[in-house]
Amino acid sequence: MMKQVLEIIAKALVDNPEQVNITEIDNEDSTITLELRVAESDMGKVIGKQGRIAKALRTVVKAAASRENKKVSVDIV
Prior knowledge:
By secondary structure, this protein is α+β, with helices and mostly antiparallel strands. The longest helix has 16 residues, at 52-67. It has helices spanning 2-13, 43-47, 52-67; strands at 21-26, 31-37, 71-76. Strands 1-2-3 form a three-stranded mixed sheet.
């Protein structure tokens, strides 16, 4: 669920939606890390001025995770 939410939002933000790639990593401390990869030219669109869009993405994904009683973090790589 969280991965799909992140993917839909990220694809809507970027110019190259086919290059959006999300890797889900289950950590030992029962948290989940979602690694978001986008085209180099789209990095600014995903991060935003002063990281505002990145922060908003993390907030939305954490809200989706809390509905499933899971802890999640989003890394933009």
